Amino acid sequence: MQDNTVTHVPGFKAGAIKAGIKKDKLDSAIIYCPTGATWAGVFTRNQVKAAPVLYNQALLDSQETVKVIYSSSGNANAVTGQQGFEDTLAIANEIASVFNCKADDVLVNATGVIGVPLPMDVIIPSIEQLPESLSEDGGKLVSKAILTTDTKTKTVAHTFGVSDVEVHIGAIAKGSGMIHPNMGTMLAYITTDVAIEKALLQKALSDAVEVTFNRITVDGDTSTNDTVLVLANGLAGNPLIADTNSVEYHTFYEELLLVCENLAKQIAADGEGATKFVTVKVDRAASEPEAKEIAMAVATSNLVKTAMHGNDANWGRIIAAIGYSGVPGVDEGSISIAFESRVGLLLVLDTGVALDFDNDAAVELLDEDDIVIHIDMGQADGNCEVWTCDFSQDYVKINADYRS
Amino acid sequence: MQDNTVTHVPGFKAGAIKAGIKKDKLDSAIIYCPTGATWAGVFTRNQVKAAPVLYNQALLDSQETVKVIYSSSGNANAVTGQQGFEDTLAIANEIASVFNCKADDVLVNATGVIGVPLPMDVIIPSIEQLPESLSEDGGKLVSKAILTTDTKTKTVAHTFGVSDVEVHIGAIAKGSGMIHPNMGTMLAYITTDVAIEKALLQKALSDAVEVTFNRITVDGDTSTNDTVLVLANGLAGNPLIADTNSVEYHTFYEELLLVCENLAKQIAADGEGATKFVTVKVDRAASEPEAKEIAMAVATSNLVKTAMHGNDANWGRIIAAIGYSGVPGVDEGSISIAFESRVGLLLVLDTGVALDFDNDAAVELLDEDDIVIHIDMGQADGNCEVWTCDFSQDYVKINADYRS
Asked: What is the ipTM score, two decimals?
């Protein structure tokens, strides 16, 4: 049976338990690599960082390898002051004792409500159940245990070749609201058995995150806990990748990129209340950063996203968003806009000229669950694509009573 | 009877008709000052500006006085290319002919759907009905005719003293979605009979807009058509205000400020789908611009606004927004957060320490239609207050099928 998760990769086990942070739901998970794995991480740029984020970040430079990712859901351990750090450390110590490793071999993550101390009275005693939860195909359980308002698990795995050996990569993610570049409330854990130097693993991850997880938006809100981690245990046996100009590095990077892009799109598609996946594709802007700025302004606009929800080809809201994006030199006379779905392509604005179109045809085209908004700025060669979802009443329903 | 609108001011008449842009609704309005009035204007900073906005802006420097504000709703005349400018000019010419004035005496405004040419076949013939629609108390009709998705008219009027003479000021506004600083889809028309130099009127208006209309947000979207106009016909007979340091200038400025603040708050309270008015008050930030940046990040957050809708004292979302606001040096350990309504005040975060609070009491406090979110940054003396509304499912309902 295909294991489309982190346990697709030899040398990794995983498991999850009901610790009691949530009511009778899987809420605590572990990914375990007994041989130790070279690791890299990318963390939220929100200035308010949760205690576990700061804990992992502190290990990033000093700790070459790690053995455990612990991840709990239901409580973010953010804005919990000194207590938050002490709790994180206590968890790492307890895991180290149960798994017979050092505390520095343990990465700790959390997601959930901000500002409430972790329920340590249930977490600490639950940790001794973690080893027996581990299995060779436990990634699926982990992908469930890390969810909050997500409606679906997000998983992906590939097998590919590097230096004539078979290499595996597997990943899981969570994220549904507070999704915005720099990243959203999202966690992603990637495992691989490639052998690669730590600095190169970090470069590959940072580069891949920039063009994948940093190009999704659900609601413009970024979170305190976002974390992407990759663990590479080297068991594939390829000669150590140590040169960013090598074919092997590029092969691995391309696979990592595909994994990140795949997860990022799964997250956007499962945005809170989402009923459709929306790609905003900007071509021929003055530069790539400007193309991204324009695409993000459009993808973040509540008005554009509600129009997509209502199958409304209201391109006026798109051009208004372009106009306030902050990019200089916007000339409406050079802009073209089209909508695309599997039904077809509909050009609605042609170099500044509004086209007559059949509204019934537009509704039919937009009444699909995968929509592309094409924006041609007609300026130069800056291109960028970002991913989002439509905006439905359920977003409000979900977020108006998340705590209760 | 108190006329709480632009026709509160002697020398101004107003009226509105059903031109046929909308189906059987008031959609075309006029404010008329036969003696001519000194004027000032503030316009959208969106780079995509509607044709009438560009038309009025072009008149701002060259035209000392105007006699007519024409304002239609249902169609924004934005992104309509050369045709949009020709249509604006044709409207100004037709009004000039009907009112026996010059085209340069006429300001033209529009609000509504973007990218659709104005229905000139119904607009031009309707203009001859405008003179007979005028009345001494027609401001109320104008306040209705300019609405789009607004649920309420927005009006205010004061009488005050300058140099021992009685001076009047009256105003109307519209705006409900696409409301964000620099401004939203909003129109505001202010009349007064004060005698004031044009440059000072412009300064007073620009200063007042900066701290009122530029401090409201509904959905983070700014529009192509935003316009605030003030017309001062001088009929009060006060000695011409010509010095920004004079008591008279300050008296007038304070009244203008009150009028703008009052309208801005009415607009925020009537945000699309709004069920409550929310003030975000930031104190002791590093500076006033930083206080504004923080307040705006919080007031724009969909997650904060849905929490307010759900009576959820979820201050974690507030501190997350502070963290991504872009202001440097955010230290969660110095931040305090409280919620206030007429029920009372509830401190939930005290210099970085989360306080236990009774959730039922919090729900009772937030289940009011006027909420204040207090944020004390504990840094220096930068203060700012901005106004917004909660975010309900009706926002989505309204915007998912605005065109249909």
From this structure: 0.75
